[in-house]
Specification:
Layout lengths: L12 E3 L4 H9 L4 E3 L18 H23 L6 E10 L2 E3 L5 H11 L3 E12 L2 E13 L4 H10 L19 E5 L2 H5 L3 H10 L6
Parallel strand pairs: 1-2, 1-3
Antiparallel strand pairs: 3-4, 3-5, 5-6, 6-7
Helix pairs in contact: 3-4
Length: 207
């Protein structure tokens, strides 16, 4: 866990993610939280299983994050609080476009997205005791045509790394996005409408 400011309000939930964007979004709606830094499982990061649909993939990975966090809480004997976990997946023509492995992979992904529509799914899971609740945000994103030079300059910025689909809508790539139908915060990685609805189910409400 991260160290908590003694003057800050007591955490209402654990966030099973080290994503700074998810932390910022929870802070935006006034939900005090602690970050759980759960060790990642060995092997490939969030592998896409053969025959698995992209929709099933994002729901499975979000559930697995929540379950690993719950097991970590038990193992570390941490205070019992609800656990919020999420996974965001960029989908193009039924394919999961994950985090780029390197610069060539980032270029490949951005060329696939250039001048076309793709889908961003974020599954949010709230685990509390034996209870597991999930909501999924689905957003259509239209990306304008990108030149090879724009793609290279974007890669030079360092923004594609660690981001599904090799871009972050809240950063420089915001000028690549012509239109969205759905949730802007869902594309960022934590849809606030769905998140607030899940938290309300266990009595965690905004101030």
């Amino acid at each position: 866990m991260t160290k908590r400011d003694p003057a800050a309000p007591a955490a209402a939930i654990y966030l099973a993610s080290a994503s700074p964007r998810r932390r910022e979004l929870l802070a935006q709606i006034g939900v005090p939280h602690e970050v759980l830094r759960v060790p990642a499982p060995p092997g490939e990061d969030e592998p896409w299983h053969p025959g698995e649909s992209a929709a099933d993939y994002v729901e499975r990975t979000a559930r697995e994050k929540a379950e690993r966090a719950m097991a970590w809480i038990d193992a570390q004997r941490l205070p019992a609080l609800p656990v919020l976990a999420a996974d965001t997946t960029v989908i193009k023509d039924g394919m999961v476009l994950g985090k780029p492995a390197d610069r060539d992979d980032a270029r490949r992904i951005l060329r696939l997205l250039s001048g076309s529509r793709h889908e961003v799914r974020t599954a949010v899971v709230l685990a509390h005791g034996p209870r597991r609740d999930m909501l999924v945000s689905v957003t259509a994103v239209d990306m304008r045509e990108l030149s090879d030079d724009e793609i290279d300059r974007y890669c030079d910025s360092g923004e594609p790394w660690g981001k599904a689909g090799a871009y972050g809508i809240q950063g420089l790539a915001g000028c690549f996005v012509a239109r969205i139908e759905g949730s802007y915060t869902g594309v960022m990685g934590l849809p606030l409408y769905e998140t607030a609805a899940l938290l309300a189910r266990v009595g965690v409400r905004r101030p």
